[in-house]
Amino acid sequence: MHYFNKFRVKPGSSVDLNSIDPNFKDKHESHEHALPEIQAYSQKLSELQYLMYAEKKRSLLICLQGRDAAGKDGTINHVLAAMNPQGCKVSGFKVPTPEEAAHDFLWRCHKETPQKGQVSIFNRSHYEDVLVVRVHNLVPKEIWKKRYDHINAFEALLHDSDTHVLKFYLHISPEEELSRFKERIDDPARHWKISEGDYAERPFWDEYTKAFEAALSKCSTEHAPWFVIPANHKWFRNLAVSRIVAEYLESLDMQFPPPTVDIDDIRKKYHAAEKSQVGKE
Ligand code: ADP
To answer: How far lies 33's CA from each of 3, 23, 38, in Å?
Structure first.
């Protein structure tokens, strides 16, 4: 549980994002240097997801949050590439539709939580309702400030229902965000990613920092931890997220379910079938 403990926000502690280095890359000099480890954790993740799918006793919810261009899409690509698509689902949360806005803020997220055996990844999540909503005063403070407790109760319910919740804040610097915006302008294949919103949110950088710090401090619990992932290096971000998920899943000590048939009996049937096949040849 080395990375799990290293990047976890300890329950009850307060987070100061400016004191966390977004360039951190542990002992690795470069992507090439880290590649064997990245591949090893992807392989591990693949095996553990297969086990979760077979076991069908519990599920996993991964929430990804971060500023624009923090790498939510890239992380999803990396984590999903290791998984069997039959066992996972990605849900994105944008400005609420009229139907979503006509319900409580958790409604749209609760519907997307994974069933037993499945992994769900949230690209943005119920935390938007204490992030963008708080920064832009989209609802009065009396309403959003109660949401931290609502979120903790919601995540406790999920945990008690065997849905394990891991939440990742992808931590980038303002310089790195700007350089990614430039890459988007310079690369026609990324033009579709550019939105006016990217630039509209940058003047609120410090307000977002406060909102993220509040969410990370108030809602990192024993049953649903937050992790702050240094994300200026995309490859390190991918390594850290997949390693934490793999370490956590491993700690669950999942087991393949017992066979639903008598294996000795099935073996006899197989040998009989094999014999009659040989007779035909
Ligand atoms: P992406 O997730 O790829 O960045 P968009 O560029 O469409 O997709 O951004 C989605 C936008 O929806 C973000 O600006 C986000 O803050 C906003 N959003 C998500 N949830 C809410 C919410 N509950 N209330 C208001 N805005 C929200």
So the answer is: 18, 16, 10
* CB burial string 53-84: b at 16+ within 10 A, e below: beeeebbbbbbbbbbbbbbbebbbebbbebbe
269-275: long-range contacts, CB 8 A cutoff, minimum separation 24: none
Owner of token pair 């049937």? 269
pLDDT single digits (tens) 55-110: 999 999 999 999 999 999 999 999 999 999 999 999 999 999 999 999 999 999 99
Instruction: Find the length of the chain.
Output: 281
> Which sequence spans correspond to the domains of the chain?
2-280
Ligand 1 center to 93 CA (angstroms): 6
The set of protein residues with a Cβ atom below 6 angstroms from ligand 1 is 92-96, 123-124, 128-129, 132-133, 138, 195, 197
The protein residue with its alpha carbon nearest to ligand 1, atom 13, reads 94
Give which of 53, 253, 249, 63 is closest to 155, Cα–Cα: 63
Region 2-280: CATH code = 3.40.50.300
Strands, DSSP E only, in the chain?
Answer: 59-66, 88-92, 119-123, 163-171, 226-230
Taking the whole predicted model, whether its pTM rises above 0.85 is answered as: yes
Ligand 1 atom with the shortest distance to the CA of 201:
14
CA atoms within 13 A on the CB side of 50: 7
- Residue 64, strand partner residues: 123, 168
Which residue, judged by its Cα, is nearest atom 4 of ligand 1? 68
